[in-house]
Structure formats: C-alpha cells, structure tokens
Design goal:
Length: 324
Amino acid sequence: MSTATRWTSTHAGSTTAEHHRGVLLATALEYANRGWHVFPLTPGSKRPATPRHTATDCDHTDPWCRSGHTGWEQRATTNPDRITRAWTTAAYGVGIACGPSGLLVIDTDTPKPGTAAALPTSGEENLASLVAAHDGATLPATWTVTTPSGGVHRYYTSEHLTTPLGNTAGRLGALIDTRGTGGYVVAPPTVTDTGRYEVTADDQAAPLPAWLVKQLTPRPAAPVSPRELRPVTHRSAYLRAVLTSEARHVSEAAEGGRNHALFAAACCLGELIAGGSLTEADATGTLLDACAGHIAAGAFTEAEAFATVRSGFRRGAAKPRTAA
Ligand SMILES: [Zn+2]
C-alpha cells in the first residue's frame, strides 16, 4: 500500500496526499526549530531516502560524496531551506538523527507475535522493572512517540553529557534499545506500510536522568573476569547452600524450561535480597554465571537473562526473607 493510499484511507476524505506532504514539511521544520537534525525517509518505509548506497558501495558520484562518503547522519540538517527543498519534492517520512540533535531515545518494543510469553516480556514492562530496581529512579515526563508496532520512543536530551552515548540493543533489558550517536528514529507524522508514528506526550524533551546515563555509559574492558571482581562476602552455610542449589537449578534446566528456572531462582534470591541477607550484585552474579551455558547455547542473550533476573528480584521483594 502506498503512503498516500494509507493516509487517505485512514483519514477518510479529510485530507489528501498533498496535505500530508505539507504536514510532513511543517513538522520537519518544527523539529529543526527545536535543534533536531532531520533527513528524509523513503516514503512508506523506515529507510533513509539518501544516500541509497552504503559506504562500501560508494563510487563518489553522489554530489554529497565527492570528497568521501557522506551518510544520513551527516546529511541530517536544521537548515529550513534544505528541509523545504527536500519535502517539496515528495512525501518523505521524517527521520531524526539522534547524535547531532543531542538526543538519546529509549525505544521499547513489543514481543514478536508467536513469542512464548511465560514471563513479563514487553519492553515497557522491562523498563518499569528497571526503574523499580533502582532506588529513587524515575523516568521524567518527556516527548514521547508510539510506533506502528506498539513500541514507545522516549526522547531525552543528551547535550549535558561530556561523553556522547551511542546505540545499545538490550543493554537496559530485553526489548529495550537506545538510539544516540550513529542512530536515528522515525518521527511523527511519518506513515510507513505498517502504520503511523504518533506523538503521545508532547512534553519538552527532558534531560536523560543520571541513573540512565550511568547504565548506558560504556564500561572500560575489565582486565579480570567479573567473578574475580565480585566482592568476597561472608556467607553462612545456609546461604551458600541456597546459592549453590539455585545456581544448579538454573544451570541444569532443560531446554524450554531455562527461562522459567532462571526466573524462579531469581524470585527465591530476591526474597533474600529483600531480607538483607544477600546483595543484589552477588545474586545477579551467581545467576548470570549459572546461565552462562544457556547464553552460550543461544537460549537467551545476557541482556534477556539480566531482565529475567530483575523481574524475579522484583517478585521476590514482595516476600522478604532472611537467611541466618
Ligand atoms: Zn557515498
């Protein structure tokens, strides 16, 4: 279905493709006015309209590429004349290049249809768990967009940061990506073949909270394994037995039951964390070590395991328990 067809069919009689192009242009100019660098997307898709080639395919005939390949991030602009020229020729979707715009966008997604949903697995739920797992953490109200697939984009400003943040996939949790330098978002009122991008909160973009900056700042490569870095704690025989037993339940779980075993073990250790018998770092380390084999086998990613562990801790926190 073409963009124009979709637009007119979803807005029966009230508008035309021409009007839609005007709205796209006006919105692109509005974004530029906020300092957000925009570039055109191929109508109906999420792909940049230019360049159509990659750096490896670049033959330097594109005027932008004469003295070296220039990608969408460099072509993105706040210049009203360039924006007007581009959006006068076609109903391009609006892409925002996050890096030059000083934006860090948190992108939560919904599970793909058909994914087994034994655990809370939407990006929104995982993000809520992440917030709950951080003392005093909040997600400030900010410019927010919903995507055709049911995803949510929260736009935060990153201009206050000394180190630019790049893109991440799953670092904050399963089905949570972030877009920064080297990344872009499809912005409203873009319409693709799958649907429309819509603003759901038109608050001013808020600065990225410090606790998230900390989570997203790349750590320098550790010279020793996390196991060696883990603090030595004095555990009672009972606590050692619980940790060993829960770790074994996880590491020995059969295919199909691994995620559940991890969640159950995290619930159990979460009760002990809530009771003050165990630190969260210690329990996380034990559980991630225990599922290292499953991660290596591709049962789930470390980020997914981490999200499951956090969900379990949260569940366990409702039933604090101490281990003498
Ligand atoms: Zn090029």
